[in-house]
Amino acid sequence: MHNFKELKFWQKAVELSVMVYKTTANFPAEEKFGLVSQSRRAVVSIASNIAEGASRNGDKEFLHFLSISNGSAFELETQLIIANKLNFVDQNQLENLLMSVTEIQKMIYSFSKKLKENNQL
Asked: Tell me: domain 4-119, CATH 1.20.1440.60, correct?
């Protein structure tokens, strides 16, 4: 079992969640059940799946949850690009958010690779 609170990519995922919540608060009201809801669910899923996976009995299960977390990161990336194309997020905001998403994706990938190597999975 891993202590998820000590994982840097979990910490960054929590920070990204706050950023996305603040950003989507400015979206049009008609997007409350569209991009706002989708983006918020995706970003919360990143950190949540890291935490859930870390609590599992073995690294194989943890890897499964890291994969789900990474999928949520790519989902969020897509939603942010769409939000930018709809002018809900300006280019500067988009670049900052995507930089954070990409950093988390890379960290999850690297950690997953190390887990696989250490456990010969």
From this structure: yes
